[in-house]
Recover the amino acids of this structure.
């Protein structure tokens, strides 16, 4: 038993020859170096670095270092502010309306989530809306902050139009993610953190970087036909809503993406739907809308976390389907990835990531990111 466990641990902690490991601190410091080189305040750069490292550590590579060039470019093009701080424009005991003042998304988002947490602690529930924000990375980062404080946390953002609504061939909504985190016991959380498209655009980009086709159901070409070519999706096509085609209930993902847009662009008075600037566009400010919410379970029935722990145990110990070894709950794949990172002593990156990061470092005249010696 011990032998098999050690063997499994060994294999889950090994990297392939197509990967190189970078210690998390070096990734953090590389992000700070790059953002500092374009004039970002140290505190803002550190907030972004923490977000990107967490994304990679959780296995959401689409939203980690893979996004650094985009944040750098936004600052270089002066469409993200480096000299402002977000402010609370309007507040009640349970709500806040925050003006993100066009700063980096994680800077505005952190202020909003901290507000949501302290309000939910006091009055039981909270809802904080942010206007004039920017790309805020993995939605889960914010929801988990609440779960770490014993609260249920939620977060939503709208994004540039990339998603093709059911029966259309035009992009009109973003990948509009939903994050929901709830605290179990001993640090075990349920963390649902998902795009409302079948896949996040970053995953298509990573397939393009690795030069491999995407799975079916992820996107359509410019005529609205399903396609497995990252190029067809990224140039003229778009992402399918969660669920894929109408026959496989993609309209449910389309409905969820619209719900997120109502919580974000519409509630915040920000840009919405196809009016949001194009993906990676730098001709205007993003003016994204975001929502952050928290619920204090102690205001309701006692022993929330214990009951949740029981539910998670029931789900995880269900009899696996033929050919499967175990049933997971949302947050488990990320937990696995976090423990792999711990065993490896750093974050494994595909080799194709390094030339791109070296090019960025050279352009900004900062020290390149240094992987662990092999
Ligand atoms: N800021 C933005 O603009 C933006 C837009 C879209 C997505 N995102 C982020 O991108 C990241 C990736 O999104 P995604 O939709 O590709 O995630 P995903 O499909 O990898 O995972 C979605 C959820 O499913 C859970 N899950 C995975 N396998 C499971 C299994 N076998 N059983 C039970 N649960 C399972 C995961 O724990 C996760 O909570 C997220 O962090 C999201 O917030 C950000």
């Amino acid at each position: 038993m011990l032998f098999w466990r050690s063997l499994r641990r060994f294999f889950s902690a090994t990297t392939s020859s197509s990967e190189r490991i970078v210690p998390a601190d070096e990734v953090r410091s590389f992000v700070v170096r790059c953002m500092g080189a374009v004039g970002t305040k140290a505190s803002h750069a550190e907030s972004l670095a923490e977000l990107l490292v967490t994304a990679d550590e959780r296995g959401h590579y689409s939203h980690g270092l893979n996004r650094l060039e985009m944040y750098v470019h936004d600052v270089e093009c002066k469409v993200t502010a480096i000299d402002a701080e977000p402010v609370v424009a309007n507040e009640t005991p349970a709500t806040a309306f925050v003006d993100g003042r066009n700063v980096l998304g994680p800077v505005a988002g952190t202020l909003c989530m901290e507000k949501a947490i302290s309000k939910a602690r006091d009055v039981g529930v909270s809802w904080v809306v942010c206007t004039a924000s920017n790309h805020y990375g993995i939605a889960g980062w914010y929801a988990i902050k609440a779960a770490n404080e014993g609260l249920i946390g939620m977060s939503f953002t709208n994004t540039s139009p990339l998603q093709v609504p059911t029966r259309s061939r035009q992009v009109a909504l973003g990948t509009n993610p939903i994050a929901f985190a709830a605290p179990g016991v001993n640090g075990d959380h349920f963390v649902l953190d998902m795009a409302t498209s079948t896949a996040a655009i970053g995953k298509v980009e990573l397939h393009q970087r690795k030069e491999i086709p995407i799975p079916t159901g992820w996107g359509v070409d410019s005529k609205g036909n399903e396609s497995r070519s990252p190029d067809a999706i990224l140039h003229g096509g778009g992402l399918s809503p969660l669920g894929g085609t109408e026959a496989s209930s993609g309209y449910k993902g389309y409905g969820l993406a619209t719900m997120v847009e109502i919580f974000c662009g519409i509630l915040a008075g920000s840009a919405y739907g196809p009016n949001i600037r194009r993906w990676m566009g730098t001709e205007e400010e993003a003016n994204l809308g975001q929502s952050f919410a928290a619920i204090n379970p102690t205001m309701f029935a006692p022993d929330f976390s214990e009951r949740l722990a029981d539910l998670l145990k029931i789900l995880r110990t269900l009899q696996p389907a033929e050919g499967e070894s175990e049933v997971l709950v949302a947050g488990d794949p990320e937990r696995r990835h976090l423990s792999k990172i711990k065993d490896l002593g750093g974050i494994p990156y595909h080799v194709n990531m390094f030339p791109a990061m070296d090019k960025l470092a050279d352009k900004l005249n900062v020290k390149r990111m240094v992987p662990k010696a092999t």
Observations:
- The mean pLDDT is 94.
- The longest helix spans residues 105-123.
